[in-house]
Design goal:
It is a single chain. Helix 7 (155-187) runs antiparallel to helix 8. The relative contact order is 0.11. Helix content is 50%, strand content 20%. With 227 residues, the chain is α+β, with helices and mostly antiparallel strands.
Length: 227
């Protein structure tokens, strides 16, 4: 078994289904997981799915039976999940994956581990870039310890942060230019020079207003409030 990162061993289909039916017997646990709005997987010691909640199945557009036995990257169609024979976690690029690293670290430390994770997903001709926050922690169900793996899609918030950085960068530059022109204007006694500086200050202030309006429109569009 060849791997560049995580252990490649996989559980048999028989063991996967045994674990699934064992978990299903704990109705209080599965009912709770299915009522939560978060994407949740229960993984075995080989990082394979033995339960996925309704929110996760809806996000993946699969039945729970289709999810069983698959690792997170395989479920989300990560471009690297099929690169090696033994699947998700074993390719060279998996060394930098927050998802598999959170699972491995959580299993070894027995602590909850949260990391950010970027996944390039391909399904047919459709390519999607996801940005997730993932958490892994141990959960005891019956007499066995599994990994409770939760996924939060943070793509929108990451994109918004990037836009805000650009906005404040441009805003600072424009405000700095306006402040510089006004300082020169205050020290300039030449009437012709003052008129030119006033025109320049007006143009910069107009750019400043345009940038603020553009940012407001972006926020309205993000919130589905743009008319």
């Amino acid at each position: 078994m060849e791997t560049f990162h995580a252990p490649p061993e996989r559980s048999s289909n028989e063991v996967i289904f045994q674990n699934y039916h064992s978990i299903k017997k704990h109705a209080d646990t599965t009912i709770l997981l299915d009522t939560l709005p978060y994407f949740i997987l229960i993984l075995d010691e080989n990082r394979q799915t033995v339960y996925s909640n309704k929110s996760m199945n809806s996000f993946l557009k699969v039945d729970i039976e289709e999810a069983l036995g698959k690792r997170p990257g395989e479920l989300i169609n990560c471009v690297y999940s099929g690169e090696m024979e033994w699947g998700c976690g074993t390719a060279k690029n998996c060394k930098f994956c927050g998802a598999v690293n959170s699972i491995i670290e959580s299993r070894s430390t027995e602590n909850k581990v949260t990391k950010d994770c970027r996944i390039e997903s391909s399904k047919g001709d459709v390519w999607t870039n996801f940005e997730f926050s993932v958490s892994s922690s141990n959960i005891l169900i019956g007499e066995r310890t599994f990994t409770l793996f939760t996924i939060t899609d943070i793509s929108d918030s990451k994109r918004r942060i990037a836009l805000e950085r650009v906005f404040f960068h441009d805003l600072t530059n424009s405000a700095g230019s306006l402040n510089g022109v006004l300082e020169v204007l205050a020290d300039n006694d030449n009437k012709d020079g003052q008129e030119k500086l006033i025109k320049t200050a007006y143009l910069i202030s107009q750019e400043l207003i345009d940038e603020i309006i553009a940012q407001r429109q972006i926020l309205d569009a993000e919130n589905n409030e743009l008319v």
